Amino acid sequence: MQALDFPGGKVTYTPALRFISESSEKRVPCYRVCDDNGDIITGSDVVNRHGDPSNDGHNILRSPEAGEDFLLRHFNRTENLECCYGEVSQSKSLPTNALEIRLTTGKGGKCHTQLPQAVGVAYSLKMDKKEACVVTYTGDGATSEGDFHAALNFAAVMDAPVVFICRNNGWAISTHITEQFRSDGIVVKGQGYGIRSIRVDGNDTLAVYGAISTAREMAIYEQRPILVEALTYRVGHHSTSDDSTKYRPVHEIEHWKMARNPVNKFRNWVEKNGWWSDAGEYELRKNLKEELLQAIQMAERTEKHPLRDLFTDVYDLPPSNLCEQEKELRESINKHPQDYPFDIPLYDKL
Ligand SMILES: Cc1ncc(C[n+]2csc(CCOP(=O)(O)OP(=O)(O)O)c2C)c(N)n1
Ligand SMILES: [Mg+2]
């Protein structure tokens, strides 16, 4: 068969005037290993790299929104609470983002801007011949922005050891995914950039573990980027300023919260293996509650940052519009002191 000798590889000719379809007939399947009851599905590829997957010293923290549990290494509950009370962020960032700033990427409330940076870091690991990779997380919302695409392409051409984990939960605040993209989700975008990709059931802990630990091995030992799309649902509001019942039916939220609850499913699996029980659950909840209450009390006792801190640190010399805003804010506080938190010092300590 005749072929066009084109830069990057030969391309075969075809006499057929045929456009590539905008979508494949079948949607990309979703890897899962546990059924809804937490039973392992016969014949599924279960990855078990380290034996007992029980407690390895991570702290499991809970964001203010139900259903958005996350795992952060090296942070304890007190630090998380301090973030919520504005201590770590100096009131400049969303609560949990402050932890992320301290972690590495300097995200701090901006969606997806960390992605090209993550690829840059991965490329530097490659240059230094480190046996390591970068893992970067994003929501479905981020994939509608340019940085996501720049990052994927950059990672592909540089063979950067980076794992992109995209949590596709169906919504970017109130924007449904059908208003965000016409592709079969996010997983197919990987192939468009020449990146190996997988779609996984984000509510199946074992499947997520299997997909990501395998992705990590490939990223490090094959020196390549990997894209993981985890399908899940945001059962909570996007943030405390969002009311998701305004744009989606409550029964849909309830269905995901109850019938597809990933924590219950994983708990069933752990219990069936004899590693967990009601008594253990009761004890843990009791201890956590005590710890949390203590952490809240400590965070509440911490002195708040002065008002001025809201306006510092971005510019060396604050521009005139920022000075005006500070002046307006101070005037407003003077006029309506009852509408402002009483414990924020209005002036810096001398
Ligand atoms: C650079 C940037 N652009 C826009 C925003 C505004 N914004 C905040 S959250 C969000 C949607 C994020 O979508 P997703 O990650 O899917 O969030 P979810 O609703 O699932 O929590 C947008 C556009 C932002 N924070 N940063
Ligand atoms: Mg989302």
UniProtKB/TrEMBL annotation:
GO molecular function, one term: oxidoreductase activity, acting on the aldehyde or oxo group of donors, disulfide as acceptor
Domain Dehydrogenase E1 component: 100-306
Residue runs in coiled coils: none
InterPro entries: Alpha-ketoacid_DH_E1_comp, DH_E1, THDP-binding
Keyword Oxidoreductase: yes
Sequence intervals crossing the membrane: none
Pfam family, one: E1_dh
Biological process, per Gene Ontology: branched-chain amino acid catabolic process
CDD domains: TPP_E1_PDC_ADC_BCADC
Keywords assigned by UniProt, alphabetized: Oxidoreductase
Keyword Oxidoreductase: yes
Gene3D superfamilies (alphabetical): 3.40.50.970
Name of the featured protein: Dehydrogenase E1 component domain-containing protein
Organism: Turnera subulata
Species classification: Eukaryota, Viridiplantae, Streptophyta, Embryophyta, Tracheophyta
